[in-house]
Write a structure and sequence with these properties.
mainly beta; Lipocalin; about 10% helix; 10 strands; 2 helices
């Protein structure tokens, strides 16, 4: 009887470990290789670009079940790069952000729908100018594997989205300056040490 109970206990323990659900692994963004570009049409004459880089964030990445993954990023609004100081200064006025020095932009995923072997739609809450609204990112896994120089697990992703700046109380001069803002994201992330 004792042998039977011991065998059952060992089998149960083995079965539990064999079928244990693996938690997503934590990756942190590589700030030196992560950028968010935004663009909009200016009066029909040109496309104007801006960028955020050097921001922080983390991805909880489940390679076996990508739908169980999540992402959260944030960046100071004043880290925006427009390429022209007068444009940046104007963005920080009451015409647009009327920003405080510590104001941030953030995105936190709420759902991930896998659409292909390397693609997904990531729904999340974008907080911008004190307004939080859902946004859907069309995302693509570029590569995952050991980084050739860092010798640790690494992952790279691209994503795109379109937002209406008027949704965030930033609609000044629309529709002459387009309300639609195109967003392009490219990030690298390294597996966290802990």
């Amino acid at each position: 009887m004792k042998k039977t109970l011991l065998a059952a206990a060992l089998f149960g323990a083995a079965a539990t470990s064999a079928f244990a659900v693996q938690a997503p692994e934590k990756y942190v963004l590589d700030a030196s290789h992560s950028q968010i570009l935004f663009s909009y049409n200016h009066l029909g004459y040109s496309t104007t670009w801006g960028m955020f880089s050097g921001f922080e964030g983390e991805i909880h990445f489940d390679q076996e079940n990508p739908a169980a993954s999540s992402v959260a990023v944030s960046m100071p609004l004043n880290s925006m790069f427009t390429g022209w100081q007068a444009r940046f200064d104007h963005f920080m006025t009451k015409d647009f952000f009327d920003a405080t020095e510590d104001e941030t932009v953030s995105f936190k995923s709420t759902a991930i729908e896998v659409t292909g072997d390397t693609t997904a739609k990531i729904t999340g809450d974008l907080t911008l100018n004190g307004v939080t609204k859902p946004v859907v990112l069309d995302a693509k896994l570029n590569q995952v594997g050991e980084h050739p120089m860092a010798k640790k697990p690494w992952a790279g992703f691209d994503a795109t989205a379109t937002v209406l700046r008027s949704d965030y109380n930033l609609g000044q001069f629309a529709p002459f300056v387009s309300d639609e803002v195109q967003i392009q994201i490219s990030v690298e992330a390294m597996k966290a040490d802990n």
